[in-house]
Amino acid sequence: MQQREEKQLEASVESLVTRVAHLKGSLQSFIYKLENEYERLTWPSVLDNFALVSGQLNTINKLLRNEKTPSFRSQVIIPLLLSPDRDEELAKLTEQRVPVFSHEIVPDHLRTKPDPEVEEQEKHLSAEAARIGPEVAQKQIQTLNKLCSNLLEKLNNPRDDRDSESSALRQNKPSFNPADTNALVAAVGFGKGLSKCRPPGPIAPGHPGQPMMSAGPTLHQVTVAGASGHQGGMGGQVTQQQPGQPGKMPSNIKTNIKSASASMHPYNR
Asked: What is the rounded distance in angstroms from the CA atom of residue 29 to the CA atom of residue 32?
């Protein structure tokens, strides 16, 4: 009879260890996704991971409540050997979390009751719960249920609320100024309001409207030789002025240049 109970206990422990290992793997995978794949993680995937962990916990609870499973509360674990030296087999079984089994570690790992701080918090919460009357507790429950219902309603209809808010904003606050739009169209299409004055600055040589000016020693000025007040004929002698020496251009040439420049100006076309 005793051997049968020991075998049953051993089989239950092995099954429990296997299911706990599966739960541990699911938690590790979920934590890895949260820490490293949070940018690609979607809400349905998070819900699937939660559902997987919750299902595994329910399976473990069912296993513990099963009639064939012996009561683990009646089993007592007694440390038979305590040593401050490193135990490689123990480190391998605990994934390097418990390298030694010494007097310092045993009280924490073989504890069957919560820590003293946790026990004090539980007592404080139990005292507050006993101090609150049934009527006050019922009112708090109703208030909490109302808040949860309002929150669920907002979460279930986010698109409708967002569309209504955006439409209300479009109706109340226009996003453009009609006067500015008309002024911009008139300026681009008809040039209304644009200044015709040429901006100040140097004008490139040869630009229409710019008179011919001396450009240095490389530009030669041409004068017509002859008596004062008389125009040179076709056979008149033409002399070339030396670079750098000032010369005068005949008045008829200046007049022709000005006339040609005025006729080529873009505003006189």
From this structure: 5
